[in-house]
Amino acid sequence: MEIIAISHPEFIPHEAHRINALFREGMLRLHLRKPDGNVADLNRLLGEIDPEFYPKIALHTHHELAAQFGINRLHFPENLRKGTPEFMLEKLKNAGFKLSTSVHDISELNALSTAFEYTFFGPVFNSISKKGYQRVIHDDFYLKNEQKNVKVIAIGGIAHSNIEKIKEMNFDGAAMLGAIWHSSNFQFLNIAGGLGPRQLKSDLKKIEKLQFISSQSAEMSHLESIRLALEAGCRWIQLRVKNQEEAQILEIATAAKSLCDSYTAKLIINDFPNIARSVNAHGLHLGLNDMPISEARKIVGHNMIIGGTANTFEDILLRVNEGADYIGLGPFRFTGTKQNLSPILGLGGYDELMQRLVKTNIEIPIIAIGGILPDDIPGLLATGLHGVAMSSALIQSKEPKETVQKLDEILC
Ligand SMILES: Cc1ncc(COP(=O)(O)OP(=O)(O)O)c(N)n1
Ligand SMILES: Cc1ncsc1CCOP(=O)(O)O
Ligand SMILES: [Mg+2]
Q1: ipTM for the predicted complex
Q2: Which InterPro entries does the annotation name (predicted)?
Q3: Which of 203, 235, 266 is the last residue of a domain?
Q4: Which of 112, 142, 260, 351 has its CA 20 to 30 A from that of 68?
Q5: Ligand nearest to the CA of 239
Q6: pLDDT mean by block of 10 residues, the chain; 412 residues
Q7: What is the pTM of this model?
Q8: What is the b/e burial string over 379-411, where b = at least 16 CB atoms within 10 angstroms of the residue's CB?
């Protein structure tokens, strides 16, 4: 659940100072919306905002200021969107701009260009700041995943007290205006209800550092391997069932979900978006030969983690563009757990790829996978990656609890 702030529509006293303070308190994104503001006043305000926050600002008007301030987020209000040809939006996206827009008619949501990262939709409640701006949905409204082409952020009358309702309605985030600027308390974390935006996002999309991959053998079923990992202390589990009917996998997934729930562990389903959705899993993992991530999003929604496999730098770029939340990069070395392995990367391969990511400013959690042993982890972490996924090393460990404890210490 993302919380986005929208500026006061007029220029207000000490505005830059307030904006800087809100960013320092944890605000992640500000939409600078001054519908009647002239370019000189907007220029002055931007000049007074701390440049470290420019990457978190989206411009609603006077997009020509973006280059001068190094701003890469552009918002297209409804009329501007309708007057901008698709090729222009694509061109901006390909040039590295993050685009957003606003929609007021729900039927337009699933026809939106995927050049947009997200859209505002509303008013979902009666507006706090705009008198007479009445809500367009009812209390029992539910936004179906099939209705969305891009992330949908609720707008209009959003306050701390109704954020839970917004989550229940299946919005991907909420945009606040009146609750911020009409509040006597300018502490952003208080306004968002003690749930800072970082925390709200991290609750749902936090990427853990140790993922256990289930496996089946003559001695152990998938569910038994998952129980072993949970008992050992692992709290991020991937159910990876091969060569079984989907109906049977759904049955195993349902049992895996309640097992994980009883240990407050997160469950990722490998390969099957519909099963991930049916069992309300925490996430889904897709390989390069599985359904594209952008298509799977339409099934599982934007609140579910989707991991994508990569073996090369080009694969990583593809996964990032598709909207993956983490990358399973591998294999590190040969493993019998998976058939048809991609080329082995070894430590040198990870080192090279991680350096290329830093050089190109790409930030996405990278999870190493494939034949990893506990002693490999310090070297892997030194390349800058986020965590590891393991199967056989945990299943074959003589003391799984001690092994997970040791891994947690290294990975924390
Ligand atoms: C964390 C993680 N990374 C990579 C994979 C491999 O996925 P894929 O390439 O689709 O191969 P299969 O696992 O489906 O055989 C993964 N499962 N998890
Ligand atoms: C699913 C997968 N993808 C690449 S290697 C691998 C298997 C990981 O298991 P192990 O840790 O036993 O090698
Ligand atoms: Mg797969």
Answers
A1: 0.99
A2: Aldolase_TIM (IPR013785), ThiamineP_synth_sf (IPR036206), ThiamineP_synth_TenI (IPR022998), TMP_synthase (IPR034291)
A3: 203
A4: 112
A5: 1
A6: 89 88 83 96 96 95 95 96 95 94 93 95 79 78 91 90 88 88 53 40 74 97 98 97 97 97 96 97 97 92 91 94 92 97 98 92 91 96 96 97 95 88
A7: 0.63
A8: ebbebebbbbbbbbbbbebeebeebbeebeeeb
